[in-house]
Write a structure and sequence with these properties.
Blueprint: H1 2-11, H2 16-20, E1 32-37, E2 40-44, E3 50-55, E4 58-62, H3 70-80, E5 85-89, H4 95-98, H5 101-106, E6 128-132, H6 133-140, E7 157-159, E8 163-168, E9 171-178, E10 185-190, E11 195-203, H7 218-231, E12 243-248, H8 254-276, H9 281-286, H10 294-297, H11 306-318
Parallel strand pairs: 4-5, 5-6, 6-7, 11-12
Antiparallel strand pairs: 1-2, 2-3, 3-4, 8-9, 9-10, 10-11
Helix pairs in contact: 7-8, 8-11
The chain binds zinc ion.
């Protein structure tokens, strides 16, 4: 709750954030189901946040959590509905988003209705796993340090167009490709429920994980956050309106996205200025370009420290237009 209290102080958010914050706090191993609005639920505690859209057509998940949490995820999903799992959409390839793919997809079944996406899957078993072509390529043909993923985890319904459309559980769903912290994240918009699943474009628990090997950059991250702002509509004079499920952390609305976008934009501008003045990476780190936000997002240990973020952001800016 500490970080949220600071958010309230810094950005002047209203008390309603505390209601949304309940999804952020989960004891180790325990999952929390948070009804968001419309057909959409948020499942917290299985790695990345999982979006559950459920109705008479079945279940669609956005991200699948870690492999270790799959049994608990399945139990939680089926406490919402007994209908079958039809789709998993992966917003990026990280293990805490896709690790649950094999076990969870195996319990599902292909869409019973005929649509273009099912043509290549005649006779296939299990749920569809949808992801951008770039995400698929990194999972199936990893380079550098990216871990290999088992074939059962691979997306089997990929798209390379700017967006893929579904109509499921009585609502249009747009799956939009957006370069951000990788070169092919997906944003999922539930148009009737008025909920957006942002994946790691929005990560309330840390600075954005800019994955240089996967083609991510801080410039693309700013553009992606701008797109989230474009897609969301605030409720007038109150919190609410379009709700945004982040990759990690509590449920958000547009005001939260704006605060995060401002943070990333200001840090980007500081870094650009420092690069223009010829500062080295070490000098930039010493100048603490993130200092104002370190109480909220900064980390000195763990998988994504402040130093790692500054380094990735610096490199993504200084390598721009310079192919080395
Ligand atoms: Zn993540």
């Amino acid at each position: 709750m500490k970080a949220i209290a600071i958010t309230l102080a810094v950005f002047g958010a209203l008390g309603a954030s505390l209601v949304y914050a309940q999804g952020n706090q989960s004891a180790a191993g325990a999952l929390h189901i948070l009804p968001v609005q419309g057909n959409v639920y948020m499942l917290v505690g299985a790695g990345a946040n999982i979006t559950v859209q459920a109705g008479d057509d079945g279940i669609l998940l956005v991200d699948a959590g870690t492999a270790a949490m799959s049994d608990k995820v399945l139990a939680a999903i089926h406490s919402i509905t007994d209908h079958p799992l039809i789709y998993i959409v992966n917003t990026d390839e990280a293990e805490d988003h896709t690790g649950g793919n094999p076990k969870i997809a195996a319990t599902g079944k292909p869409a019973p209705f005929n649509n273009l996406t099912s043509l290549g899957r005649a006779g296939a078993e299990g749920a569809f796993i949808i992801a951008s072509q770039g995400t698929f390529e990194r999972m199936s043909a990893p380079t550098g340090k990216t871990a290999a993923t088992p074939v059962e985890a691979w997306p089997n319904d990929t798209f390379s167009t700017p967006q893929k459309k579904l109509y499921f559980n009585g609502e249009p769903i747009l799956i939009m490709q957006q370069a951000a912290n990788t070169d092919g994240n997906s944003i999922v918009l539930f148009r009737k429920s008025d909920v957006v699943s942002a994946g790691d474009i929005l990560d309330l628990t840390e600075y954005p994980i800019i994955d240089l090997k996967a083609g991510g950059s801080i410039e693309a991250e700013v553009e992606a956050l701008n797109r989230l702002i474009d897609l969301t509509v605030p409720k007038s004079h109150a919190e609410g309106g379009t709700m945004v499920i982040p990759g990690h952390g509590r449920l958000c609305d547009q005001g939260d996205v704006v605060a995060y976008q401002e943070m990333v934009t200001i840090i980007r501008d500081r870094l650009k200025d420092m690069i223009k003045r010829g500062m080295t990476l070490e000098q930039v780190k010493a100048a603490k370009p993130t200092e104002d936000w370190d109480p909220l997002y900064g980390k000195t240990t763990g998988r994504w420290t402040t130093d790692m973020f500054v380094e990735a952001a610096y490199k993504s800016l200084s390598l721009k237009g310079d192919k080395n």
